Amino acid sequence: MPRLEADRLCLEPRHLALLQGLLRRHVPGAEAWAYGSRVSGGAHETSDLDLVLLDPADPGRAVEGWTALKEALQASSLPILVEVHPWSALPETFQREIERAYVVIQEGGGTVG
């Protein structure tokens, strides 16, 4: 799977730091991948950020805390919409598409990638 470097993510460093703090707080054991236009290079200033959460121990299981994360993202000072989905809820065809180009925002086990 082509993991891209975080500097390929079209997101200001201060916004990435805020996002990573929310991830650590609400889904510390999850792996978080960014995908879509903010990874592929087609983003503009108001583009949303697409995230998918995986449980590294069991990718077929939904990540505990992801709904709390969604609420925290909506209440945060991030100036963009962040769409977050559990990997397990996505169709396999969409999972394969994401695997073509993504950036790891948080590695499983609570460390930041």
Q: Uncertain regions: pLDDT < 50 for 5+ in a row?
A: none
Please write the string of helix (H) and strand (E) elements. Answer: EHEHEHEHE
Q: Which CATH top level class fits?
A: Alpha Beta
How far the N terminus sits from the C terminus, by CA atoms, comes to 16 Å
* Rg: 13 Å
What's the shape? Answer: globular
Q: Sheet bearing the most strands, described? A: 5 strands, mixed
Number of strands: 5
Biggest β-sheet: strands ordered side by side in the sheet: 1-5-2-3-4
Mean pLDDT: 88
Which secondary-structure class do the elements indicate? alpha/beta
CATH fold call: Beta Polymerase, domain 2
Organism: Azotobacter chroococcum NCIMB 8003
Domain Polymerase nucleotidyl transferase: 23-98
Keywords: Transferase
GO molecular function: nucleotidyltransferase activity
Defining key terms:
113 residues, alpha/beta, Beta Polymerase, domain 2, 5-stranded mixed sheet, 5 strands, 32% helix, globular
Polypeptide structure, described:
One of its GO terms (molecular function) is nucleotidyltransferase activity. Keywords: Transferase. It comes from Azotobacter chroococcum NCIMB 8003. This protein has 113 residues and is an alpha/beta fold. It has a single domain (3-106), classed as Beta Polymerase, domain 2. The protein has four helices and five strands. Strand 3, helix 3 and strand 4 form a beta-alpha-beta unit. Helix 1 (13-26) runs antiparallel to helix 3 (66-75). The longest helix is centred in the N-terminal third of the chain and has 14 residues, at 13-26. The mean pLDDT is 88.
